[in-house]
Amino acid sequence: NGLNALAKTQGKLYFGSATDNPELTNTAYTAILDNNMMFGQITPGNSMKWDATEPEPGTFTFSGGDQIADLAKTNGQLLRGHNTVWYSQLPSWVTSTSWNATGLTAAIQRHVSTVVGHYKGQSLSSSYSWDVVNEPFNDDGTFRSDVFYDTLGESYISIALIAARAADPNAKLYINDYNIEGTGAKSTAMQNLVTSLKSQGVPIDGVGIESHLIVGEVPTTMQENLEAITALGVEVAITELDIRMTLPETAALLDQQKTDYQTVISACMAVEKCVGMTVWDYTDLYSWVPSTFSGQGAACPWDENLDRKPAYDGIVAGL
Ligand code: XIL
Q1: Catalytic residue positions?
Q2: pLDDT tens across 89-116, in order?
Q3: Average of pLDDT values for 48-75?
Q4: Count of other CB atoms within 10 angstroms of residue 294
């Protein structure tokens, strides 16, 4: 018994967790991570990003990513590749070059095809996926200004997707973003992008719904929103779920967090083409939240001692 076993019984592909290479020396942590009844899928938190995989132009390093891919294979878990094109965690040679369109197109194509090609067939199943483009939108639904958009406009997205499809025709290709959990301008922009890509014949298989949420503030329109996205002919997945609170934690906050986890999981379970759910690490011990959102934390379903929190029971109730 475990979260992945329950999710699969209910018709989903997986329940998974993010992880990161430095965490893998903690044997109490890996004992839970490696159990494929609990987690049927893992995502590398950092080690497949551009700065980690192509630190110098044309020089690729896969040691960190391979450790996670090998772990997934050993454990009988699916792999979500994360990610190939993102404004953040770029090596300085990408951000500091004054690109023209031809040069940056070639750099994107080389990066995406080499990284996605390297991991082709390394997963146990063809149903693994890649976050090919990560976080392309501002919260108001306009495209984010970054080296890619500023040089190529929105064409960088199709350049990356086409290169990924050619490198691994079996991988599900996703665009992943946050603040698209409920209906609103940003989700509408994502839907418009999917429609536009499909009308041009650009490969797009899924939309990743990150779901970095706040206790007491889970959007009420989540199920409706997921239905609207899947109605466009793509799958969705909850890709980076955590639900943070302002510290210190209290029994009341932990109880609201349990309800909130159940709400999110229930929304995915109710939507046929929501294929799986991933927490952005399962334990508060390794959550990215405290170092990113000052004064906030306790966002995960296991606490810092690797004990299950009420949120765990909320997930079970939602599955
Ligand atoms: C985070 C990692 O968890 C941190 O370790 C790192 O310092 C910054 O990135 N959205 C994403 C993820 O798509 O890649 C981010 O991961 C969290 C927000």
Answers
A1: 240
A2: 999 999 999 999 999 999 999 999 999 9
A3: 96
A4: 9
Residue 80 has pLDDT above 70, yes or no: yes
Closest to 132 (Cα-Cα) out of 152, 161, 171, 155:
161
* Atom in ligand 1 nearest the alpha carbon of residue 281: 3
Q: Give the pLDDT confidence score for residue 122 in this predicted structure.
A: 66
Q: What are the residue ranges of helices labelled H in 86-210?
A: 92-96, 101-119, 147-152, 155-167, 185-199
Residues with CB under 6 A from ligand 1: 45-46, 134, 210, 240, 288
- Gap between the Cα atoms of 118 and 167, Å rounded: 9
If you measure from the C-alpha of residue 46 to the centroid of ligand 1, how many angstroms do you get, rounded to a whole number? 7
284, 299 in Cβ contact below 8 A?
A: yes
Over the stretch 176-220, which tens digit does the pLDDT of each residue have?
999 999 999 999 999 999 999 999 999 999 999 999 999 999 999
Closest residue to atom 13 of ligand 1, CA basis: 134
Side chain identity at residue 31, one-letter code: A
Nearest C-alpha to atom 7 of ligand 1 is from which residue? 288
pLDDT of residue 123: 55
CA distance 60 to 177: 26
> Which residue among 19, 46, 129, 213 is best mutated to probe the pocket of ligand 1, counting the most ligand atoms within 8 A of its Cβ?
46
pLDDT at 193: 99
Q: For helices 222-230 and 251-270, what crossing angle results, to 10°?
A: 30
- For the residues of 245-273, what is the DSSP string, one character each? EESSP-HHHHHHHHHHHHHHHHHHHHSTT
Q: How many residues does the chain have?
A: 319
The CA-to-CA distance between both ends of the chain, in Å, stands at 13
Task: Report pLDDT digits (tens) over 232-281.
Answer: 999 999 999 999 999 999 999 999 999 999 999 999 999 999 999 999 99
**Cα separation values, 292 from 76, 204, 244, Å:** 32, 30, 11
143 residue type, one letter = F
Q: Which two tokens stand for residue 284?
A: 């508060």
> Angle 185-199/222-230 helices, nearest 10 degrees?
10
